[in-house]
Amino acid sequence: MTTVMVTGGAGYIGSHAVLALRAAGFDVVVYDNLSRGFADALTGEAFRGVPLVQADVGDRKTVQETVRRYGVQAVMHFAALAQVAESVAQPALYFRNNTVQGLELVEALLDSGVNLFIFSSTAAVYGEPAVVPIPEDHPTRPTNPYGMSKLSFEFVLESLARARGLRYVSLRYFNVAGADPQGRAGERHDPETHLIPRVLRAAAGDQPVEIFGTDYPTPDGTCIRDYIHVTDLIDAHLLALRALLTSTEAFTRVYNLGSEKGYSVREIVAAAEKVVGKPLTIRELPRRPGDPAMLVASSARIRQELGWQPRLGLDAILATAWAWEKRRPGAARRTRDAES
Fold this sequence. Notes:
The chain has helices at about 10-25, 60-70, 85-90, 90-110, 145-165, 195-205, 230-245, 265-275, 300-305, 315-325, 330-340, and strands spanning about 5, 25-30, 50-55, 75, 115-120, 165-175, 175, 210, 225-230, 250-255, 260-265, 280-285, 295. It is α/β, with parallel strands linked by helices. The protein has two domains: about 5-180 and about 225-255, NAD(P)-binding Rossmann-like Domain (Rossmann fold), CATH 3.40.50; about 195-225 and about 260-340, UDP-galactose 4-epimerase, domain 1 (Alpha-Beta Complex). The strands form three sheets. Strands 3-2-1-4-5-6-10 form a seven-stranded parallel beta sheet, sandwiched between helices. Strands 7, 9, 11 and 13 form a four-stranded mixed beta sheet that branches. Strands 8-12 form a two-stranded parallel ribbon. Helix 4 (about 90-110) packs parallel to helix 5 (about 145-165) and helix 6 crosses helix 10 (about 315-325).
């Protein structure tokens, strides 16, 4: 049985990957320093028996000990810092964590005989798009250090594939949202910077929804993003893993993951109002630095090559996210108060 190490497995997307990998019959070990993840995200029957190694991905000795102890054969790498505004304020932190420590991780894996790697990349590598929807061969011109740190690591992977036989898939996410339909995992960041959970938390606490920037060159002046349900996103990771495991030749691929449909911030707020059953107050604020006006994916490549097909649209994203928000620790009382 194949054992997969999930870095950042105590985080939002990583915890969903753990669920899907176990359901598919893989053994899993989570590797997370818990700087942004939560150990209690791995509690409950669905996570029973999953070991957690608490360490930095740049800790070569612990990476190699983990590979040996658990017989790791492949890695899904989710561990990263991912706040655009924070990256603008602290670029060195992002390059050190996302690029330099990532290099340490991959070299430690290769030195241990592990050459199958799936990377959690981002649409932020494209910057302001020249064409929409954005294909994978679009020029990469990140507008913020977060996107540049991820793109830099993609170059690391490409170089190590040529030099050392690394076989990898880099998955460029557009906006991931929603929660496990069975309620076993959901989105949780501290602080929360992603739009949909921010909108739903505002609704639960009867607070205004903050919109950053209303003067973008879009139909309603707010940013447009492509939203993909976290369950569909993880399905793509499993397809990528199986492709790596079954390919008999050098395998390096870059794929976009998105729904190929964009929604503005105002459209998301309007859709959320239908889910929560009440109007929401909006507070308009200046743009955040480094935010492109529009990011919408072309996912044709992964559809054609791996047969990936997203199944859950915006309604499911909002419904599962709202169900999770009402169950989230500390949220139940605020939700009851907001609904009374």
